[in-house]
What does this fold into?
Amino acid sequence: MTAADTSLHLVRAGIDTYSQPVVYMREDCHVCRAEGFAALTRIGVTLGPKSIIATLNVVTEAGWLPADAAALSEAAWALLQPRPGDRATFVHPEPPASDSAIRAKVYGQELTEADFTAIIGDITGRRLSELQMAAFVTACAGERLNIAETIRLTRAMQRAGETLDWGGAEVYDKHCVGGLPGNRTTPIVVAIVAAAGLMIPKTSSRAITSPAGTADTMEVMAPVALDIAALRRVVETEGGCVVWGGNLALSPADDLLIRIERPLDFDSDGQLVASVLSKKAAVGARRVLIDVPVGPTAKVRSPAAAASLAQRLAAVGEAVGLSIAVHVSDGTAPVGRGIGPALEARDVLAVLRRDTDAPADLRGRVLDLAGALLDLRPDAAAGIGRARAAALLDSGAAEAKFMAICAAQGGFREPSAARHRAVVTATAAGRLEAIDNRRIARIAKLAGAPGRKLAGVRLLARPGDLLRRGAPLFEIHAETPGELDYARSYAEAQADVFELRE
Amino acid sequence: MTAADTSLHLVRAGIDTYSQPVVYMREDCHVCRAEGFAALTRIGVTLGPKSIIATLNVVTEAGWLPADAAALSEAAWALLQPRPGDRATFVHPEPPASDSAIRAKVYGQELTEADFTAIIGDITGRRLSELQMAAFVTACAGERLNIAETIRLTRAMQRAGETLDWGGAEVYDKHCVGGLPGNRTTPIVVAIVAAAGLMIPKTSSRAITSPAGTADTMEVMAPVALDIAALRRVVETEGGCVVWGGNLALSPADDLLIRIERPLDFDSDGQLVASVLSKKAAVGARRVLIDVPVGPTAKVRSPAAAASLAQRLAAVGEAVGLSIAVHVSDGTAPVGRGIGPALEARDVLAVLRRDTDAPADLRGRVLDLAGALLDLRPDAAAGIGRARAAALLDSGAAEAKFMAICAAQGGFREPSAARHRAVVTATAAGRLEAIDNRRIARIAKLAGAPGRKLAGVRLLARPGDLLRRGAPLFEIHAETPGELDYARSYAEAQADVFELRE
It folds into this structure.
């Protein structure tokens, strides 16, 4: 059987199956029948030098798929990038080389550097199925990666992508482990630290399960989808940037693993540390501040959990050439007033511009974090970082630097506000004890965040406030009346997003 | 927002996504935009009383999907069974109730009966994604289910389906844990045991990853897709049957879990025991013989592993009202001469008909197993089962009973032979030490088994044989020249499917 006999013309299915490449093949096509593919769920696809293993879906109602053609899902099309008329070859796939390593981890064995290299290689080479990736993620969850394995995984993930070289300069970076809506400190911290003359090439994520990621919030104010050359230009000019990391392939395995980790949502310090530090190492950072909000509805639930995570971060950081400082912060309530890209951007600008009604809690956290970063300087006198950060903010130096960074990234734009809004009020009187982070985030997402940049929630009460019945709790912002109604229905059905006690 | 606003007309996508229900929705459809579904990967679908959670794939090239419609994959269509003009409602899905139980198992905790009931309920209720099922399967793999948990899982799986009631009769059953190509003892054992006057309502699987399942082999000779009423009629008339279990919903959770377990292929005694015994309990069995072939390329690799499995089978069996006997057999080589549905059927008939060239190893195993089953009779004198089984076989009683069972199941048909064949010969001289079970099975599958019923491999040499160079090793059978070539290319590229030593 010659190669031509196992080839098919490629068409684009126009079906988005997220990161999983899918091939659609007709049940009655000659290749499918000759090869016996219909019984498979996985299929090897080769186009010139590019090879992947995709999931096979057999098409019975063949109207839209021509004879002698196979259709590719969006992910498969992006990976293989066929030109018009291209034919790909289809084969029975061999089990991926990392099969035995994944199996070993499932059975509780310790994995070697070679094991992690094989696994990460098969992930970035698009040879693992979602099921195999889910098995790997599950097998590593909880406490099932020790520190040595976390180091190996971190290194394997870093080696899978680019590493930026800043020529020996001291490079600073920060990261927040998350779980706290509205905690949009990064753009302000970067502005302060760059205004202090330090180099801070900050890359951030878009939201995956939250109402806004830092990249979404920043994008309301300036372009973030820069490539590596543009990132360098901004940082070499202004000292800092806030760009979208997903465009940079700094840790390509992380981008793929995250799509499995997030829906499953298992706690795994090993995976979290490897994800964060592989990206920090790849961006060429040297001194890194990790913000760990702690609270019952945050990602890290207790001081003991924070301490354990901090220890792992420090140990792995050291092994990959990073000097890590961990800052434990309060994770009990959302930060600032806005939750959603534009609403958070407005909080950021309010703090930078020293508006009188700027959220004091956001300002406070920003100064804590920027101060801690400034204290990482090798020559710094201990403990004066926060005061220096406050001076740079209050003098307007941070605001000017932020505007300069936005201009360098492609141009600043002022955030606008959503047209459709509704205030949700207290159904009884009492002191506001707590705000459920997860539920308020859900409301913001039902309102349309982050896809709708102007959508989200604006908080109108803070923990500690004494409220009468009917007092405003929060305002839902939405870009369409339908989304507003949807979020409001959900909010009104929830008894205790805002926990009030008499 | 009224229900009508979140509803769409349903069309059939004609795309087979296996057991995972998928909904295809246009990116620009009103429901997708209003609800913000495009960011989701999972979506709730309700049609009348039926509700599932499906994976959402967003369609950008919308040619084949009309406006105001959503398309369903084959699995989703089969679950919801829309009538023409039906509109379904689409909602953001709540996390499944078993989420916390799965998470607990991932973190290594022991699960309760309520936990397993919730998990099995969400599986059969089609609320878990493939990723969540993969996480559950992974978390239970290796030794991570103890005996108490295995009992709870077995009970939960049994309760999820029908249990047949035989009115207090002594009901016998057998099962082989597998991994041994050609080991098609069941049709003959059932015939012998039924000829002895015992009741044996045997249900069997189709192949999932092997070249033939018992149901595939039996189906060459008689219909197997009987429903429960038909199964009862056959058993009440003839005492025994060999039918396809997949049609009977005896353990619906098992049917769904197996589609995740097989591609992942992790060893898990807990899952294996729960899978097997839930089906035996559901069919109303009381006395069960489990055949465990042991060998380096079988499913169970060592006597110690067999002993551990046997202990778990016995303990769980007792807890669910089954009297289990385990028969450890030789798993070092394929059994009989045929591998593939029709080729194995011909071996079965050769043994039943007492043909002079019937495979002696298959006959021997059949007598061992049938004998062991007869020895399970409460009133039986110990150890005479095998002799009784031999007498029933040699007298022709078993053959007559088999023909009667086939007639009762819908009619006997004589297996034919494939038209396209090729013999593979020894490339050097030597004694045949071993045949690699996994590789010979692969060759049979590449030749087209089990989809092509006549396809597979006919063994022409046995371990122990002294062979000269050029001696025939095996003959590949295929229904098309292309499949024959494909299998032959693979076979000729493999150096040591047949391990010869000088």
